[in-house]
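Attaching the record inline, Q. Sequence:
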Amino acid sequence: MKIARRLVLTALVCALLALAAHGAGWTPQLGSDDDAAASTSPRDPSSSQAAPDGADPDTSPTTPGDDPADPTAPAAPGGAGDPAGPSEEPGAPGTDQGGTPSPSQAPSQAPSEEPSEEPRAPELQPGPALMGPGDDSDEVRELQARLRQIDWFQQDVTGTYGDVTRAAVEGFQAKREIPVTGEVDQRTMDRLLAMTSEPTAAELANQLGANVPGALDPRCTTGRALCVDKSSRTLRWVVDGQVLKTVDVRFGSDELPTREGAFSVAFKNRDHVSSLYDTPMPFAMFFSGGQAVHYSPDFAATGYNGASHGCVNVRDLGAITWLFDQVQVGDKVVVYWS
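Structure, as predicted:
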């Protein structure tokens, strides 16, 4: 019995071993079937490219450089521990191997340029003097007459180039941006000729109104004097024998005559109104009681068709305005017949 049991046990072990051996032999066959099924299944469009021949199907293909150990892989520039990587020289950032600034590192802002100054026009220089202070001639007389036409010279022409003429020339030059010298050069003369007309004989003789002055009274030839000539119906402002201004005047009527003789200016009033006649007497310069030299709007309007109440009337407003500023209290007033 014992032998029989042993035989049965031995047969059972052998059967089990045979069964185990048979099961182990099936494993490669199952794997081969799976591969075949995979090869016959529809290909997934998103799957990766088939492995090259001889490659492991479970691993994806590699490209040069994927494997750090691949000698064909390009080295990363400047990588740590890479002796072949390019290095920058200390103190030269942003330069290539040749030491030239790369375009990305080059300065983008151009150096600013200094603002250039506007070119200046050359400064005008005065020309040679044609006339100047101290001259005495007919040319000076014409110069004064022309300056009087444009209201730069407000006195009678004399032919003598004095301080008044010099000041008139300076004002004319400054107004027209001509070099101011007080002397007449060609540029000044050309400008004056273009702005004025040739003086008439009356202008050169100071006969600006209808009246021609007579001879000066000897009392008018010294000092400062308002010289009033009843014969020519003129008034002349004379300083040291030189006539500076001549104007037309009218006098009182036969009932209220203007007194004759030598007087002096007693007082002045720019806006006087007569207390007797309640009439305005602008720019009044009183010389004999209530009689005065003054502006008369009636004389300017009607001329010699009327008469004053004894005063010396002036019809040129610009002239009397200028005279009022020149004449001083105490200056002589000489009323006479020439």
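The two ends are 201 Å apart (CA to CA). The first helix runs from residue 2 to 40.

More tomorrow.
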